[in-house]
Amino acid sequence: MKLSVTLGVIIGNRDFFPDQLVSEGRRDILRVLEEAGITPVILEETATKLGAVETWNDAKRCADLFKAHRDQIDGILVVLPNFGDEKGVADTIKLSGLNVPILVQAYPDSLDQFNVERRRDAFCGKISVCNNLYQYGYAYTLTAQHTVFPADESFKADLAKFVGVCRVVRGLKNVRLGAVGARPNAFNTVRYSEKLLQAYGITVSTIDLSEVLGQADGLADEDPRVAERLATIHGYVPTRGVPPPRVLKMAKLGAVLDEWMTANDIDATAIQCWSSLQRNYGVNACTLMSMMSDKFMPSACEVDIAGVAVMYALQLASGQPSALVDWNNNYRNDPDKCVLFHCGNWAKTFFPDFEMSNAPILGTTLGVENTWGTVAGRVPAGPMSYARISTDDRNGVIRAYMGDGRFTDDPLDTFGSRAVVEVPGLQKLMHHVCKNGFEHHVAMTLGETGAILAEAFDTYMGWEIYHHQ
After folding, report:
1. What global pTM score does this model have?
2. Which of 21, 198, 206, 449 is least enclosed, having the fewest CB within 10 Å?
């Protein structure tokens, strides 16, 4: 997963403002980008006056530069050291042909520098630039403060959020998801529209579970691919008490999934994790799914394609693995706390320690001996984010909700992958989930990324969102 970001940088200028403001602004922003590990694509200072954009010819030169790097540029940063030229900015973006997120920054004036030598008027210029971007049909992102110095911590936070937005938008518009098997018949809740997802660049490839199991059964125990996968499983999770033949079967299943994903450039999967897998093959796929998620190839339960799509978005936003969970249980009588649970297949990044186990609930009907392969662990206290997308086929739209909470260390005596989470206003959120027909599955990641997903989904994907705050 590509976490680094490249930004096309446009320095705006109005030539009757002091030249030194533009030169200072260029130095300021390049310093901040370097500190943040962001690669800039920016005009050389000699390419136009001060390397800024004002005239039509300036716009053409900057656009040509952006075109030459169009495969690398993830977003555009507009910097206004002074009023800037609104047409120059908008024309540059139009001529470049880029359709990426845009962040607009403008410098503040200082009351003791309202003289001809230091006056900026960028407060006003930003309004004009945004007006022209709107007229040209471009979506754009604003800084928290209307005007802000690049070195200010507020802008650095804006920039970090924008980088996350760029990763999410770039990733979702090119992601390839794999549906392994049919959804469990009892789970209407995970139905989705491939066509709606495709309209936003999200591609779904499918494979029948019988093909996977048939190929896995056909692999010899001594096959090098199986041996390699077996070694990675043992290196990933303790398998004390797990029957070795069941671990071997997992290795064969993993080898087949690896080859199919590689052949089809699959970024993430949603797997028919019950009940055919247990009845016809005799293991759970949870460990394999955990391993994939931990390597930034998220894998979701019950062929929940919309669920794995939002898992992918969350990891792009946070730079951390994600997991699919159930909003599963109330926690005592605390209205803001609940239990998150799955059998489970959460990435080991979530756990200080964990082990391979079985699935007691599935085992009641499928036989516990056929459910080895889950990962069991408890998530410790810390910040978290959650999100869900859903294809609303009746209205032809994609809808989403997202927000931030925190894992707690409250007592919890149960099995599987589990956590206690506190979400302020949880009852309001649950009302929204139920009233709007969302699924019982939700995705989570470490850190606080709700605002990133809200901006990416609303401003740039055009989805209907509810940002719970």
Report:
1. 0.96
2. 198
Query: For residue 114, is pLDDT > 90?
Result: no
Q: Are residues 167 and 183 both part of a single domain?
A: no
Beta-ladder partners of 300: 270
Distance separating alpha carbons of residues 441 and 328, to the nearest angstrom: 9
* Kind of pairing between the strands at 203-207 and 176-180: parallel
Q: What is the pLDDT of residues 426-441, one digit of tens each?
A: 999 999 999 999 999 9
For residues 36 and 39, give the distance between their C-alpha atoms in angstroms, rounded to a whole number.
9
* Cα–Cα distance for residue pair 66/63, rounded to 1 Å: 5
CB-based contact 85:53 (threshold 8 Å): yes
* C-alpha closest to that of 131 among 66, 96, 83: 83
**Residue 59 burial (C-beta neighbours within 10 Å; 0-12, 13-18, 19+):** buried
- CATH number of the domain to which 55 belongs: 3.40.50.10940
Residues 117 and 237 in one domain: no
Model pLDDT for residues 228-270, shown as the tens digit of each residue: 999 999 999 999 999 999 999 999 999 999 999 999 999 999 9
- How many residues appear in the chain? 469
- Residue 1 resides in a domain: no
